[in-house]
Amino acid sequence: MHPFTLERPRDLAAALILRAEAGRNDAPAEYIAGGTDMVQLLQEYVRRPDRVVSLAGLLDDRIGSTQQGLRLGAAATMADVAAHPVVAREFPVIAEALLNSASPQVRNQATMGGNLLQRTRCPYFRDIGYADCNKRTPGSGCAALKGENRWHAILGTSEACIAAHPSDLAVALVALDAVVELRGPDGERSVPVARLHRLPGDAPHIETTLQPGEVITAIVVPASPAARRSHYLKVRDRASFEFAVVSAAVALEMEGERIKEARVALGGVGTKPWRAPEVEAALSGASLDPDGLRQAAALAAQNARGYGHNTFKIELMQRAIVRAVETAGGRA
Ligand code: SF4
């Protein structure tokens, strides 16, 4: 592990100043909250900051609900959010995404904000023994393009990076039009979760639209009939503690036997949490007839590109959408 100074500021304002000062001195700094991802990155020399600024105790960890929706403090843990009765009842896609993530131990420690900002599981990014990784070392190439890319993305890729976004929670939140509240050196602002993560383009090392030093302070999820009838389907290589090969977050508002409104987001297939508006449009007004669902799901694959080991995801993604819509549609 690269040696670093652990800063423990007394409040969030002091943390922002510390982080900003570190930037000015050209001494890289990182925030750390739950630490379930950051500690791994530090241990493996993937991140080598001179200063680590602890956010422990500085961020809201409350879970609040009103008729308008849900407000999750950034420091709320995955376990507490998943177990909250309002989340389970009114936003099942969130509870299911969380319960299908990581292990109980990790869920007890990992925070909402940190979950959204976790780094990709691309093995070439995580192993500094591989020199070619544009995300870790800009301009060095991409070992995954011609390497083992079974876990990689088929949507939103570029010649510079094909890493899949890892967060299940982010996929559920994108489907529900959630927003993150941010605080940084220049004040506060809000950003839809759908615009929090960037496509890799030719700069895959810049993963989010956060400004330098900004932190996520809360997540706001609007209530809706669709949120109540929602489902997260995760396909993975083993039953627990595994990232998605493919996942689908679906939220439906039904009118009798027909879908009035559908929201569909995908995980494991995109370089960012992937909303599928063309599928949603095709599902609007449709019944749950399997043939119709398959035709709608096929639209998600229009711009998909396989890289060899991961080409099977193009078909699997469509099947996951169909299954998730059937499950959500069957919910009361
Ligand atoms: Fe690095 Fe992205 Fe290529 Fe993985 S896919 S090796 S993260 S550049």
Keywords:
13 helices; alpha+beta; 332 residues; 5-stranded antiparallel sheet; binds iron/sulfur cluster; 12 strands; Enolase-like, domain 1
Description:
The chain is α+β, with helices and mostly antiparallel strands. It has a domain at 226-329: CO dehydrogenase flavoprotein, C-terminal domain (Enolase-like, domain 1, 2-Layer Sandwich), CATH 3.30.390.50. The protein has helices at 12-24, 38-43, 78-83, 85-90, 92-99, 104-109, 112-116, 123-126, 168-175, 225-228, 277-283, 290-298, 313-329, and strands at 5-7, 29-32, 51-54, 63-66, 69-73, 179-184, 187-192, 215-222, 230-235, 246-255, 258-267, 274-275. The strands form 3 sheets. It has a 5-stranded antiparallel β-sheet, with no helix packed on it. Bound molecules: iron/sulfur cluster (SF4). The site of iron/sulfur cluster has 15 residues, from helix 8. Iron/sulfur cluster is lined by residues 120, 122, 124-125, 133-135, 142-144, 152, 161-163, 204.
Outline type = globular
- Give the total of beta strands: 12
In CATH terms, the superfamily of the domain at 226-329 is CO dehydrogenase flavoprotein, C-terminal domain
Q: SSE order, as H and E?
A: EHEHEEEHHHHHHHEEEHEEEEHHH
Secondary-structure class:
alpha+beta
CATH topology of the domain at 226-329: Enolase-like, domain 1
CATH architecture of the domain at 226-329: 2-Layer Sandwich
Q: Any low-confidence stretches, pLDDT <50, length ≥5?
A: none
Query: Helical segment tally?
Result: 13
